[in-house]
């Protein structure tokens, strides 16, 4: 999809989720949206004849005048609509057969089938949303946790754009001061016009970049692998965290021979917990394959919970995962301990001891300092742009004035990418291709 093509067309799509439902919506947007809606709607008034913000009740008809369904038309007049264009929403019963027939009739009357994300793309191109807000729409649609929903809502309300705008104002102030100094070196530049804004901008960017990992985990979810020797308590811990028996637990070592996944929410982040086969040398081909798979899962996990049985003689695990991606747990803390290590968090799947502390430790590892931040970066694109802006600001603070001026121009350009004031067509195509049709 090219963002420059077809924006003069009227586009249409089913905007409700696939499958049956009580209500379904076919959305039209463009210069002919209300005329097309009038061509298939029979009621007391035509959609093209009423002001925006009106509901009309009547029949949706086919080309022969037969009734497709009864329903409502909601009329929006541009620029006071989601897309900034004239919009008609045809609300009918949510049967796939009804929706598909209604959409087919709309297309017969001259609308074009919308591309993925085209309604939101039009909202961006018509100035109704900046690019960060447009990405927040996708975040709301895909939100799998309360944290993801909250960040997407803040983004849609423009909070990220405002934060980026404040940083940009500081950089602009410093850039103007440097350029004035280059033009009029005898005048000098007060520190509050150059160094102070630069220092604050750098600090703000560092804080913003620090939220990137948390924002992406809140959006896509995190994978936590439970690793340990047989009978270390991995399956029991998984069941305890879930609150129900998902994994089979027996006293026999090697019960879990393949990995098992379960979903939950921890620290406001959607989590996939992965229970893996116990790590040990074995001649059993199936169990050995499970052990290899457990090691692979540990390497790919966002966080690894390393479990060691605190009630038996200690035998350290040969873990190759970087320590910063590991949490070390001493399991079976309800039994008399055979060893003690301050680096390990005691937990018991039987009594629940340490589970609250474990959840807090997971939260700290996944969210870091971002937990106290109001606004997060929620996409790799945003994080990349913010990091580049930060690197340019750092360079500007140590370079001569002429080079510093150039670095600040690059920093401002990188910041502009976040809100979409300076972004290529290829980037736009990539962003909106991730949207569903109808949004």
From TrEMBL:
InterPro entries registered for this protein in UniProt: G_TrmE, GTP-bd, GTP-bd_TrmE_N, GTPase_MnmE, MnmE_dom2, MnmE_helical, P-loop_NTPase, Small_GTP-bd
Pfam family name, one: MnmE_helical
Transmembrane segments: none
CDD domains the record matches: trmE, TrmE_N
SUPFAM superfamilies: P-loop containing nucleoside triphosphate hydrolases (SSF52540)
Recorded superkingdom: Bacteria
Positions that bind (6S)-5-formyl-5,6,7,8-tetrahydrofolate: 27, 89, 128, 439
Compartments in which it is found: Cytoplasm
Keywords, in A-Z order: Cytoplasm, GTP-binding, Hydrolase, Magnesium, Metal-binding, Nucleotide-binding, Potassium, tRNA processing
Coiled-coil regions listed: none
Residues binding Mg(2+): 235, 256
Cofactor annotation: K(+)
Coarse class of the protein's main subcellular location: cytoplasm
Comment on bound cofactor: Binds 1 potassium ion per subunit.
Span of domain TrmE-type G: 221-367
GO cellular component, one term: cytosol
Keyword Nucleotide-binding found: yes
Biological process annotations from GO: tRNA methylation; tRNA wobble uridine modification
Keyword ATP-binding: no
Family: Belongs to the TRAFAC class TrmE-Era-EngA-EngB-Septin-like GTPase superfamily. TrmE GTPase family.
Reported function: Exhibits a very high intrinsic GTPase hydrolysis rate. Involved in the addition of a carboxymethylaminomethyl (cmnm) group at the wobble position (U34) of certain tRNAs, forming tRNA-cmnm(5)s(2)U34.
Name of the protein in its database record: tRNA modification GTPase MnmE
């Amino acid at each position: 999809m090219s963002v420059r093509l077809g924006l003069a067309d009227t586009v249409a799509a089913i905007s409700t989720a696939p499958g049956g439902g009580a209500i379904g919506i076919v959305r039209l947007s463009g210069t002919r949206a209300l005329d097309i809606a009038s061509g298939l709607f029979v009621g007391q008034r035509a959609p093209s004849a009423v002001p925006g913000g009106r509901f009309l009740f009547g029949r949706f008809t086919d080309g022969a005048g037969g009734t497709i369904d009864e329903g409502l038309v909601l009329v929006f007049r541009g620029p006071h609509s989601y897309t900034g264009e004239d919009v008609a929403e045809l609300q009918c019963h949510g049967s796939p057969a009804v929706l598909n027939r209604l959409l087919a009739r709309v297309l017969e009357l001259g609308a074009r089938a919308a591309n993925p994300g085209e309604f939101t793309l039009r909202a961006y191109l018509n100035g109704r949303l900046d690019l960060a807000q447009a990405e927040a729409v996708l975040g709301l649609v895909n939100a799998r946790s309360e944290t993801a929903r909250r960040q997407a809502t803040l983004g849609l309300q423009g909070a990220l754009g405002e934060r980026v705008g404040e940083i940009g104002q500081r950089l602009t102030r410093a850039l103007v001061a440097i350029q004035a100094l280059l033009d009029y070196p005898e005048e000098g530049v007060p520190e509050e016009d150059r160094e102070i804004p630069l220092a604050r901008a750098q600090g703000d960017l560092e804080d913003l970049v620090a939220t990137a990992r948390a924002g992406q985990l809140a959006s896509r979810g995190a994978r936590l692998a439970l690793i340990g020797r047989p009978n270390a308590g991995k399956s029991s811990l998984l069941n305890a965290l879930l609150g129900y028996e998902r994994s089979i637990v027996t006293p026999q070592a090697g019960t879990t021979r393949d990995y098992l996944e379960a979903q939950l929410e921890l620290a406001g982040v959607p989590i996939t917990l992965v229970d893996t086969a116990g790590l040990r040398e074995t001649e059993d081909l199936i169990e050995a394959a499970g052990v290899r798979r457990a090691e692979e899962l540990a390497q790919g996990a966002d966080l690894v919970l390393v479990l060691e049985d605190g009630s038996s003689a200690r035998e350290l695990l040969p873990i190759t995962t970087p320590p910063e991606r590991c949490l070390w747990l001493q399991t079976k803390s309800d039994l008399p301990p055979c060893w003690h290590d301050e680096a390990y968090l005691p937990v018991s799947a039987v009594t629940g001891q340490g589970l609250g502390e474990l959840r807090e430790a997971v939260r700290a590892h996944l969210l870091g300092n971002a937990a106290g931040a109001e606004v997060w970066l929620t996409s790799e694109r945003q994080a990349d742009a913010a990091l580049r802006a930060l690197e340019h600001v750092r360079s500007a603070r140590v370079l001569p004035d002429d080079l510093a001026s150039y670095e600040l121009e690059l920093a401002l350009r990188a910041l502009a990418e976040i809100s979409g004031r300076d972004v290529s067509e290829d980037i736009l195509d990539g962003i909106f291709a991730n949207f569903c049709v109808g949004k």
